[in-house]
Amino acid sequence: MLKEKLYDILSSKTEEIIEIRRYLHKYPEISFQEFKTAEYIRDFYTGKDIEWIRYPVGLNGIAVKIKGGANKNTKKRKTLAIRGDFDALAIQEETEVAYKSVNPGAMHACGHDAHTAILLIVADALIQVREDLPGDVVIIHQYAEEVSPGGAKFMIDDGILDNVDAVIGGHVWVSYEPGIIAVRAGMAMAGRSYFKVIITGSGGHGSQPHKCVDPILAASHFVVAAQSIISRNLDPAESAVITFGRFEGLGKFNIIPNNVTLDGDVRICSESVSDLIEKRFTEILAGISAAYGCSYELVYEHDYSPVINDEKLCGFAEKFINANSIPELKLIRGEITMGSEDFSYYQQKIPGLYVFFGAKPGGEVFPHHHAKFNINENCLVNCAKFYAGFTIDFLESLDN
User: Fewest C-beta atoms under 10 Å: which of 12, 168, 354, 394?
Assistant: First the structure.
């Protein structure tokens, strides 16, 4: 059986997949600056039996096609894309692992090193059985997932989804034990918008506030009023999060500044909610400006859309896992996370599925984007087996 052959190949690569992950972890590069990482990935494929889909794709992206062998006459030939990201975060690592980041201010604190290692090993195994594949596979190594506008849209514009029937991706997730595959149909991850507000008043000495227009006072009222949007303007059946990440009024303890800068993000489950929040931001700011005699500037940018998983692909994944061809895997229904992902761009073009791989380490667990984040490397091969097995079942299926 082809799947069993792939599983055996992947099992034999357990040490290699960990070695790749640790190398990438040691040499992280932040979004839009992943030049050496891209070279490492390119070199991995050099000399292998693949077709390049341009290089680079977008700024730093890499996509290769693994052409399957002769198609069976009874089935329509299919193409599945598997996507993984490879950018790191602008975080100074605080772990004490032997493969700790050597690049100051950069760290794989989200697991994209694992995603890349998994994808490389899956690709290598598929290449080895290429002649037996009943369809084609496109491997997408995407740059800059972490920073808007992200790398996905540029790679898509470069044609990586042309003639592709469906796309699958996934994320290592430290909330779940190794072996868990969390699948959720429909809404799986939130969309995201960015905002920046500058409130301008008239500064002066703290002993004479009556001669000033205090932007700190006005900004404070805006922070409080903005939170009321969730509780008083949003349908209780909807979900959203408004986070202020910066409140900056540079000055001294006895000086009222001229202006205050606020910025943050909005997490939403539908585009209409983001539109509503933007509208209410404008209305609230206009009211506060009139009340306190200040002025304001608002930047509100729609970044990533929600990740909406295709129901047929979810059912396909559930059937595959429940068939128990990989006993180490356990299916659960994933929870909606208010994190965001530019995987949503792929899903706007073709059916897509985004899953979560259990990667909970032993000992203390630190969340994604934490300076001490780490994963359980025992999950890596099983994640690769999931991709490989799903790929074969998908390519052999009569429909999606």
Answer: 12
Model pLDDT for residues 132-151, shown as the tens digit of each residue: 999 999 999 999 999 999 99
Contact 94, 182 (CB under 8 A): no
Question: Which one of 145, 214, 342, 377 is the catalytic residue?
Answer: 145
- Rounded Cα distance between 228 and 240, Å, is 12
Residue among 140, 7, 152, 4 nearest 66 (CA):
140
The amino acid at residue 362 is G
Question: Cα separation of 354 and 317, whole Å?
Answer: 10
Distances (CA, A) of 365 to 88, 98, 100, 287, 361: 19, 18, 17, 44, 6
pLDDT digits (tens, 9 = 90+) for 34-77: 999 999 999 999 999 999 998 899 999 999 999 998 655 445 78
Task: Pick the catalytic residue from 29, 85, 87, 265.
Answer: 87
Asked about 145 being catalytic, the answer comes back as yes
C-alpha Rg value of the chain to the nearest Å:
24
Cross-strand bridge partners of residue 357: 172, 181
Q: What residues of the chain score a pLDDT lower than 50?
A: 73-74, 400
The pair of structure tokens assigned to 314 is 């979810």
